[in-house]
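for the writeup, i need someone to sanity check this before i put it in the appendix. the sequnce is what the collaborator sent (i think, or maybe the updated version? ugh). structure was predicted straight from it, no edits. if anything looks off just tell me and ill rerun, i have time this weekend
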Amino acid sequence: MPGLSERHVRSSTGLTGWLRSIAIELGGRPAARLCRRLRLAAGRTRLLRLLTAPTVRDRAPLVLGVDEFAFRKGCTYGTILVDVEAGQVVDVLPDRTSETFAAWLTEHPGAEIICRDRATAYTKAVKEAAPHALEVADRWHLLQNLSAAVEKTCHQHRDCLRKRAERAKP
């Protein structure tokens, strides 16, 4: 029956949709734990099989977000590319080298603004493959820089601040 089940499938299309949503939001093991709590029969491998890779467009989005992530912490890292305006993953690169990112930018022109972290590999790739694009720091790194600057300033002026605080006491 269309909309209810598919041929040779052991669960309804509605349940498969729910499981896919859980897998997208939580990933493998956390999604499997939630399914156990909800009494749904779905292991981590089944949940991960429900995930499909996003289709890679020919052109990059106007605002492209670039960040690194760990496939396996301390061992292998990759690069995730995000359409910042839509909030969707555009592509996942297998490493975090400038050559790989520059090749992707060359194959997918069109990014006008690239929001990235402070990694020099990404800077090099943008200058090489998309020199016209405006580079901006991402929100997390801006806040990290701000907190470091405030902490440094407070540390440099701690004697002045301490004297001022002592004079202000009644």
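The longest helix spans residues 139-156. The chain is about 45% helix and 20% strand.
thx in advance!!
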